[in-house]
Every structure is written in structure tokens, then in C-alpha cells.
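Example 3.2
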Amino acid sequence: MTTRTSDDTPARRNTTPGPERSGGANLADVARLAGVSRATASRVLAGRAAGKAASHARVLAAAQELGYVVNGLARSMMGVGRRSIAFVSSMMVGPTFASMAGGAEDVATANGYLFTMCTTGGDIDREAALIEALTEQRVAAVLLVGATPPTEEFEQRAERYAQTLGRVGAQLILCGRAALPHLPQIASIDYDHRGGVRSAVEHLAGLSHRRIAFIGSLDDTTTSSQRFLGYQDGLADAGIPLDEEMTVRSGNTSDDAATATQAFIATHPDATAIVCQTDIMAVGVCRALHASGISIPGDVSVVGFDDMQLVADLTPSLTTVRAPFHDVGELAGRIAVGEPYTGPIVLPSELVMRGSSGPVRA
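Structure, written as C-alpha cells:
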């Protein structure tokens, strides 16, 4: 149907597939006002022309007068201009991932890269689409963050991602996850999950604890499995037999951990210490113990893992394993901006002793 104006003259229909151009200046406008060719204007605005020439000053003045904005995406897709580093995780960044992202962003910003954070919601199809989109935008590197099941499927997926990114000279970097044995070309920056929990158990055993429980997700992801292995290592070092009844399954929330702890202590009053897979779980464990009138550490000692900022402010403050999240991000960022990768990096974790752990009550 043809629309008409008030004088019955047919109105021109907008046949463009999207919003009409709002009148912003383009490169040709800048070149015309400066009295130079488009090629010269392009070189100046891309930072590839000498800064002392009169034409250089005229181009910059014209761009400022017209309010010209360089199309950074177009430049990056042509292999010039500012590139980006993407931090990709399954969910919105929490305190631990925020620290890791901060380390990577510090390096990216210092080297002139844009830094973006993306989430996948744990959806593999969404993750794959995101990698493809980042490749199309000529990302410099993708930092793939967090634990995954150590499966052949994940290795194949990671290999596809690395090949896709490789088409534009970008790289895939695993952060907080162990290296893939069959794909040594994929960079991996991790920290010592297993040794960290082992040191926590050894600390408790040194305080004469023998009934040491472990609360965790107990699934097949790399983080969970490595931390549970550390628990087993610590028991073995202390000569304490593994008792499956002392392992408690919980989701990684304080509410889940509190609920699991309440059920556990009702049937295991002999437990004198609890090692937690994460600080978030430890917060729930402490809440459940307080609610049940159980003293920390007088009756039960509690140890976490991560050293989130808030846990030093608990009452009592939480003994925990400090993971070097910021350092992991910083090293990944350095590789992303061009530092040579010479092989898998595993940073040490550190036991931080505070008020929530103490000797067994006589």
C-alpha cells in the first residue's frame, strides 16, 4: 500500500533494510574538508602517516570538526587497528573469576588491547557460536575459563576452537584448567588444586584431627576431582583411612553447603574437622555449625579453598587455601599479547591459617 502526504503526493517509501543513516561523517567527508585524498586521510587516522606534515594536521582538524569516528570493528576485521582479548566463562564473573579477569585486563590494557568478558551459561552451542563470532571480529585471543569434565569431547571441542581462532592468528588459552595432554599447542595456565587441599588436610592432621570430612560437588569436573584427590592424598600422608561416609556432596552455594552440613553433623557427631572444596561452601558450613551450637574451631575446625576477600572477615576468620587467580589471569594475558608459550604453567597455592582451625579438643 502506498502512503500519501496531505497534498495527496505519493510519499517516498524507505526501502533500506534497517535504520537510515543519521548523517554521521565518513572518511570521504574528512578527506574533502582536509583537501587530501581518501588514502591519505585513511593513513593519518590509522596512525600510519608522519605527524609533521601539514596534511596530517588538516586531517585531524577535519575529523574533529566533523565528529568523525573511526570504525574500529571494520579496522580490526581488516587486520589493522586495536584488537581485543576475550574472557569467556560459563556464568557471570564471581569474586574468584573477577580476580583472574582483573589480572588479564591489566595486561591487555597496558598493551593497547580491548578486554571483553562473555558468558555462555554452560551451553556448548552458545559457546561455539561465541567463539565463531569472536573469530569474525578478529579477536587476538580467547581465555577459556573454568573447570570442565576431562573428556574426549572437550578435547575435540577445544581443538576445533583453536583451529577456528587460528584462521585469524588468534589463540585459545585455558585458564584455571589443566593442560590437554594430546593438544600441547593449546596454552594452559592453572594452579595447584590438588596440592592445596593436601596441605589443608596435613594442617588438620598436624592438629591431631583424625575424623576429617570433605564437602564438595564430587563430580567429574577438573576442579572438583583434583581437590578431592588432594583430600585423599592428605589422608594417606597422615595414615588416615579414607571413609566414604566422611565425604559430603553439595552444590557450590552457601545454602546448599549449609543444608548438607546440617544433615551430615546429625549423623556424624564424631567429625572434628571439615575441608571444603570452595570458600563459598565453607561459608555455608560455618553457618550450619553456628546454627547448631557447634563451636568453631573448639568443636569442629573448618578449612576452605580460594581465599575470597570476605572470608577473612568471618567470625572466626576462615583458614583457607589461597589460589593465585590474579597471577593466572596476568600470565594468560601476557601470552595473549605475544609472550612465548613454552608449556603448561601450574602456579602454587598457599595455605593461609586463620581462626577457624585449631587442635582437637581434649
